[in-house]
Amino acid sequence: MKLPDFTLHRPTNLGSAFAAAEIAGAGGFDWLGGGTDLLCNYKWGIQLRPHVISLRGVAELRGGEGTLAAGRTLAEIEGDSEIARRWPVLVGAVASIATPLIRQTATLGGNLLLDTRCWHFNQTRDWRDAHGSCLKAEADVCRVVPDPGDVCVAAYSGDLAPVLLVLGAQVVLVGPDGERTLEIERFYHGDGIRRFRDKRPDEILLRVEISAAAESWTTAYRKLRLREAFDFPEGGVAAGVRWDGGVAADLRLATTAYDVVPQLYPDIVAPHVGGALDDAAIDAMADALQDAVRPMRNTSMSPAYRKKMARVLCRRAFGACRPA
Fold first, then answer.
1. Own/partner pairs, 199-203, CB within 8 angstroms, 24+ separation
2. Residues 264, 270, 272, CA angle at the centre, nearest 5°?
3. What is the second-level CATH architecture of the domain 1-60?
4. Within 13 Å, how many C-alpha atoms sit on residue 71's CB side?
5. Is-contact 238 162, C-beta < 8 A?
6. CA distance linking residue 269 with residue 253, whole number of Å
7. How far is residue 1's CA from residue 44's CA, in Å, rounded to a whole number?
8. List of E strands, the chain
9. CATH 3.40.50.720 fits 218-318, yes or no
């Protein structure tokens, strides 16, 4: 397949990026990070725009050693010794994404802004025409949940969002009117089409910020996928523990690929805060997570299997957070 025709803009700074967006007009462009997901969708005829604005040359997005600038490639983050020292779980999660070749191009911002995925959506235009398409593309009803059918349930499958949720991160957005900061748990919106709570089309994800306090947490991420390389997660669980002696003084639990947005589960961990993170506590949280997740029939693996594996992933993630 070849790419369709579009006008490519290559700004070198934020000012010229916003100028290109103004020329393209609202709804007439896509921001392009590494392009490892967006350009595949364009080849399949999915949600084409007449203008594409590449952010690869925007100096303000590049950052340096130890930073979580949105334009840094996953390979750069994976090889960043300062990030590995401060947040090893983040480097581990990055190393599990796709393949080494893709990580050379894919960016941090692109992974956090990853479009939601669905078996009825991520297909060629001919396939969608033959099978009735879906609410996220050309149809007016959801094929996965036809009743009521007016809410998209495509799954969010980024690996880094649940890790950053556990780390209590913030995202910094920048637009023509300046910067603003959001807690990452407020960033995503529970609809597979809208995706973000209040990010405007002309805003760019500038960077991610994590407080120094997060370095005291012990965190882990475990994921399920068809192959151990390349594939998007069919389920992912991040767990975090702030230890005080032998007591779990605070706990966090987050998932990806089970819903239209990454999710935190404060109610599941709350009963176990202040206690020992023993097998009984981990089993209770794992059982509760299995009950809580509601995977849809919109990925390669069955919802029943993905639901059962939520328990397994939760046990493995919290198990990895316990002292050796």
1. 199/173, 200/175, 201/21, 201/26, 201/27, 202/18, 202/21, 202/22, 202/26, 202/175, 202/176, 203/173, 203/174, 203/175
2. 120
3. 2-Layer Sandwich (3.30)
4. 18
5. yes
6. 7
7. 8
8. 7-9, 29-32, 51-54, 170-175, 178-183, 204-209, 217-224, 235-244, 247-256, 263-264
9. no
- Relative to beta strand 51-54, strand 178-183 is unpaired
pLDDT at residue 1 in the model: 75
Q: Are β-strands 7-9 and 170-175 bridged in parallel, bridged antiparallel, or unpaired?
A: unpaired
Structure tokens at 57: 């040359």
Q: What is the pLDDT of residues 31-77, one digit of tens each?
A: 999 999 999 999 999 999 999 999 999 999 999 999 999 999 999 99
**Length of the chain, please?**
324
CA-nearest of 210, 240, 256, 173 to 68 is: 210
pLDDT in tens, 225-257: 999 888 999 999 999 999 999 999 999 999 999
How far the first Cα of the chain sits from its last, in Å, is 50
Tokens of 131: 């099978």
- Residue 206 and residue 246: Cα distance in Å, rounded? 38
Q: List pLDDT tens digits, range 137-173.
A: 999 999 999 988 888 999 999 999 999 999 999 999 9
Residue type, 44: W
Neighbouring-strand partners of residue 224:
235
Cα dist from 232 to 111, 159, 221, 223, 257, whole Å: 11, 8, 14, 9, 9
3-class secondary structure, 270:
helix
Looking at every residue in the chain, the average pLDDT score rounds to 95
Q: What are the extents of the domains in the chain?
A: 1-60, 218-318
- Locate 111 and state its tokens: 């992974």
Q: Is the pLDDT of residue 198 over 90?
A: no
- SS3 of 62, please? coil
**pTM score of the predicted model:** 0.96
